Amino acid sequence: MENKEMWTIDELVSLTQTVQSAEIDYQGKILPVQWCELTESEEPKISIPKSGEDETQHYAEIASERMLAMIEKANNLNPDGKTLDKDSWAQLPTTLRWSISNTVMQAKNSAQSDF
């Protein structure tokens, strides 16, 4: 059995101040993106869909708000690495937004970098 290293609380806490980055390959070109893990108090507020409201659309909007919060936090910590912001996020093709979200949610430790 492989001997795995254990996280310390300090290492986990430091993730909320560590800018992570990746390059997204989209239609033959690269888009660099950066994000930062959120603390619970930084998470967008989650609401219950209103009666008759499309639940899928509602939860997609919450996921989009969360991704934007992670990007904006990284932009504040590392303004030189900023490529996306609230205005540009809203204008991106949906397929690209999903690709960014999937990359961020599946990020490996090797994608981390300190700024």
Descriptive notes:
The structure is a single chain. With 115 residues, this protein is an alpha+beta fold. Helices cover 41% and strands 14% of the residues. The chain has helices at 9-14, 55-77, 86-91, 94-105; strands at 19-26, 29-36. Strands 1-2 form a two-stranded antiparallel sheet. β1 (19-26) and β2 (29-36) form a beta hairpin. It is globular and about 50 Å long. 13% of the residues are buried.
Question: Topology of this protein?
Answer:
Elements: H1 9-14, E1 19-26, E2 29-36, H2 55-77, H3 86-91, H4 94-105
Antiparallel strand pairs: 1-2
Task: Offer a concise description of the structure.
With 115 residues, this protein is α+β, with helices and mostly antiparallel strands. It has four helices and two strands.
Continuous helix count: 4
Low-confidence stretches: 109-115
Q: Structural class of the secondary structure composition?
A: alpha+beta
Strand order of the largest sheet: 1-2
What is the arithmetic mean of pLDDT? Answer: 88
Strand content: 5-15%
> What general form does the structure show?
globular
Order of helices and strands: HEEHHH
Oligomerization: single chain
Specify the helix fraction band.
Answer: 40-55%
In whole angstroms, the N-to-C terminal distance is: 35 Å
- Radius of gyration, rounded? 16 Å
Largest sheet: 2 strands, antiparallel
The tally of strands reads 2
